[in-house]
Write a structure and sequence with these properties.
The structure is a single chain. By secondary structure, the chain is mainly α. The protein has a single domain, classed as Phosphate transport system protein phou homolog 2, domain 2 (Methane Monooxygenase Hydroxylase, Chain G, domain 1, Up-down Bundle), CATH 1.20.58. Helices cover 76% and strands 0% of the residues. It is built from 7 helices and no strands. The longest helix has 31 residues. The protein starts with a helix and ends in a 17-residue tail after the last helix. The C terminus is likely disordered.
Length: 230
């Protein structure tokens, strides 16, 4: 579906600008995710850097509204053959907008759990190592998303989807292990929030990848038997 969408949107077409804005949203969200990951793992964010991050989120939200308006305006005066592509774009921009929100949430974890006047320290143990590996996989998926979309690379989308589903299960298992640990309240909250927010990031990335693999009515779901062969 996504490949067909961008073949239709190429050239002089009313929704071409909307498609380019969607790509810009995805690029901005990717930058935010990478920046947020660095902050979670210890980078000290200056006030200027935090402001810049929030400004990117504002821009993503603005682009989302612009894309929605373009789609609604076009579909209200276009042939019915364009409806599936408009519906697809409307769904995808919402997932990208959520990526930016969760990136912001991740940057807020360190200051949320840090004791007043104290420092935030994560234990050097297996559970933190597990979380770090999970976050690295999520970041890799975010880094690859733009290229996968630009190339309409179904094979890579399928690979990352299978891997992503496995990572999502690991997030849930990690939360259970944290709940059964003897961590302090602040550390347990820190790691649990991270596991959940990274899982949600991954979930929206997988929703985006599903548009390369699934028909429109099954968007946000993955069924290997239903993947078209074309």
């Amino acid at each position: 579906m996504f490949k067909r969408l961008f073949s239709v949107l190429s050239g002089d077409y009313p929704l071409e600008k909307a498609a380019r804005r969607f790509t810009k949203m995805l690029e901005l969200s990717r930058e935010m995710i990478i920046e947020a990951d660095a902050v979670y793992w210890g980078k000290q964010m200056t006030p200027e850097e935090r402001t810049a991050l929030y400004e990117k989120d504002v821009e993503v939200n603005r682009l989302q509204r612009t894309v929605r308006k373009a789609v609604i305006t076009h579909l209200s005066s276009s042939a019915s053959s364009d409806v599936p592509y408009g519906l697809l774009l409307m769904s995808l921009v919402k997932d990208v907008e959520r990526l930016g929100d969760y990136a912001k949430n991740i940057t807020e974890i360190p200051k949320m759990v840090r004791p007043e006047g104290g420092t935030r320290e994560l234990p050097d143990d297996e559970l933190v190592a597990e979380l770090r590996e999970i976050t690295q996989r999520v970041i890799a998926t975010a880094r690859n998303a733009v290229e996968i979309y630009n190339e309409s690379n179904n094979d890579r989308a399928k690979e990352l989807t299978l891997e992503g589903r496995s990572i999502a299960k690991r997030c849930d298992q990690l939360v259970t292990k944290i709940a059964q640990s003897d961590y302090s309240a602040s550390v347990a909250v820190d790691l649990t929030l991270a596991a959940r927010f990274y899982k949600r990031l991954l979930g929206h990335l997988l929703n985006l990848l599903s548009s390369l693999l699934m028909p429109l009515h099954k968007l946000d779901y993955y069924d290997e038997n239903a993947i078209p062969n074309d």
